[in-house]
Amino acid sequence: MSDLQTNIARAEAHLARFRDTGVLNRIGGADRPALSGATFDNHSPVDEGFLCSVARSDATDIDAAADAAHDAFPGWRDITGTERKKILHRIADAIEARAEEIAFAECLDTGQALRFMQKAALRGAENFRFFADRAPGARDGQSLPSPTLMNVTTRVPIGPVGVITPWNTPFMLSTWKIAPALAAGCTVVHKPAEFSPITARILVEIAEEAGLPPGVWNLVNGFGEDAGRALTEHPKIKAIAFVGESKTGSMIMKQGADTLKRVHFELGGKNPVVVFDDADLDRALDAAIFMIYSLNGERCTSSSRLLLHSTIADDFLARLKARVENIRVGHPLDPQTEIGPLIHKTHFDKVTSYFDIAKQDGAQIACGGNRVGDTGWFVAPTLFTGATQDMRIANEEIFGPVLTTLTFDTEDEALEMANAVEYGLTGYVWTNDLTRALRFTNRLEAGMIWVNSENVRHLPTPFGGVKASGIGRDGGDWSFEFYMEQKHIGLATGQHHIPQLGA
Ligand code: NAD
């Protein structure tokens, strides 16, 4: 058997139980179908084959989960940070032990290539370990003495929170949002994306087997417009941590207004990679290709706009085109595959619609621009050239293996183009001129910028975007700022004068 056939057989074995039982909700430590009995079918992006049925929940299921999270909150809040740390490390251990199952499930459910998903479990485990180690200090505050008072601050967990995640790298993103919530002492209701429910279910099972008390983490499946919406409107849910599209973030803000929901949004991007002619062009080429064509281009931090100094553009584009034409599209479980199928027909239709849009706007398709095969949602890695910043392909998030290239003559022009979009998640700048790097990054509108590097995550640093790319930051202590409330306590140090009325 080839590596691919072996992997398919192993993946089928891991997923067989979901085919039999479907993906159920997990509420208060118990498996629950949707209270209405409704389900929806989940299909593989590889060949549209049936993967499993999934609970199609509504507001009544969200009610049950919010009640469970509410009831579990005092117990979880009040156990020591050291105890929380131990449980979160045990979750990390169990994630590592089930790495193959997680990787294979993620590949078949989302279409992401195994070469990247092999690390999904390890990255998820790292997220748990990072926040586990911070759990004992989560409540730490400051001492701010004044002449008459000893002022101290402390932090307390905000309460039960809702976590809503998208379908791109759903396992890693779920751990990234849920680990800090648990470390802070919050309880959680998680609503994963309807297109990719499987690893969220594996994750909650792992957490409970590792000793997380029932009700601390609840999983409710379903569609955004019913289960998702009900979660954002629920009065017992104190905050919503959301990762997804900018327009959904805007809807959630409205939906949460009546209950004054605290929100944290990680949204879309149209991120520039700016290459100046003094840069190390070999490394810039590798990084630009990696940041748009890895993870099927379904990546919020992808470098989807390449801004090239006109003096080097022709040569750089020729080398880029040769490399893009060489990228291997194939079955996600084939170890050789670099790009797998897009998640779903709806998304495939969106991505491929930009092939015509590019032509209508007057850009050229230097390579790709077509479907690959006639089953599944495979798209050839695509390169648009001759684009200008006013075109839709230079402004809208396509979220596929599609790169738009533009050229500039001066640094000011590059900056203007880089900042011309509604988004501001990441930026990548390639130059060996230190002063230019400082000047440019200072004026670039993005929450995260890398100079002479692809996106390399370091968990203590802040993760998030500006403009339509988000509100709030994750990582380091920033995650706790969201999941916790600051509290000030002033203790009189003596008999200071208290103004007397009516005396
Ligand atoms: P999406 O906004 O369509 O869906 C995300 C989640 O929101 C899903 O679980 C969905 O069911 C739910 N949802 C939809 N409508 C809702 C509503 N009215 N109320 C409550 N929940 C609702 O996003 P997607 O297509 O699944 O994911 C892709 C998007 O996510 C891209 O825009 C990408 O850039 C973004 N993303 C951002 C980051 C980041 O860190 N900034 C990371 C990953 C993905």
TrEMBL record:
Keywords: NAD, Oxidoreductase
Residue ranges occupied by any Aldehyde dehydrogenase domain in the UniProt entry: 38-489
Keyword check for Ubl conjugation: no
Any GO molecular function: 5-carboxymethyl-2-hydroxymuconic-semialdehyde dehydrogenase activity
Catalytic residues, chain numbering: 266
InterPro entries according to UniProt: Ald_DH/histidinol_DH, Ald_DH_C, Ald_DH_CS_GLU, Ald_DH_N, Aldehyde_DH_dom, DH_HpaE
GO biological process: 4-hydroxyphenylacetate catabolic process
Family affiliation: Belongs to the aldehyde dehydrogenase family.
Record's protein name: 5-carboxymethyl-2-hydroxymuconate semialdehyde dehydrogenase
Gene that produces this protein: hpaE
